[in-house]
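Exercise 7.
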Amino acid sequence: MASALDSKLLVVMGKGGVGKSTIAAALALAAAGRGLRTLVVELGDQCRLAGLMAGNDTDEPADTARERELAPHLWSLTIDPERATLEWLQKLGGRVPGRMLAGSGTFQYFAAAAPGAKELVTMVKIWELTESARWRRRSRSYDLVVLDAPATGHALGLLHAPYTFGAIARVGPIFSQAQHIRELLEDPLRTSYLTVTHPTEMAIGETLELHADLHERVSREPLATIVNATLPRRFDAGELARIAALAHLEREPRRSAALAARTVHHRAAAQQRHLARLRRAGARVLTVPFVFAPQLDSHAVRHIGDALAHKLQARG
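Solution. The predicted structure, written as tokens, is:
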């Protein structure tokens, strides 16, 4: 089994709010720390990754539409579909300016009539970023591209776009590029998938559905499932018996402390049952402990990335 950091493309997937962007940033930092030329990519209006890497978990207003160096061996990019479309059209049109092609009636009809056109263009850009020979001269090549994929439903639509357009366009440049993307997504030596979730019943159920959908859409399985915010099992049977005895005391603060300890234990036990459900379904589970802090600083993000990279490599 290959390690995720040995891939050309690492796709980090999951529902919103489970810490997906943090995991993408952490793994990108870990890869860069190992000397890999790493690009971490996000989509849409949010520009959070650069802030996460700096220990500031907020949207960043700076221009991230260009590949921007954040640290040694590490760059970030937010893909703008309109900008990616112009770049793609320029490649297809040769000497014809991309803006002229974008303004043509034929292309406007194509973009309006074809659901998923923006998703296809985005995937073309992601594929281009993984190539050794980039479209533009002097553009740097990368050892690893880490994609912080959009929330689950949008991510699946993004990954399925080249299959949709490959079926529509049986010949020509669109078919050719759709085929290149499909080959990239299906190749276990070039692309790895990680899913991120929380140890709750609903989140685990949605993750298992994501695994099934990923298999259906691109015939792939996640390399691992990363479960964020897990609690440790702290007490053995004897300690739990003593905690139960303290919980019946009328004196404070011992009674309150005992009740709090018992609550945390029950919550950790419930989490372990949810993790067992994932494992029974065949998932490789990697856990990230709950961090008792209002936000993660850059040191904590790096620590998470190094620990996950070590686990992934150990089973590689």
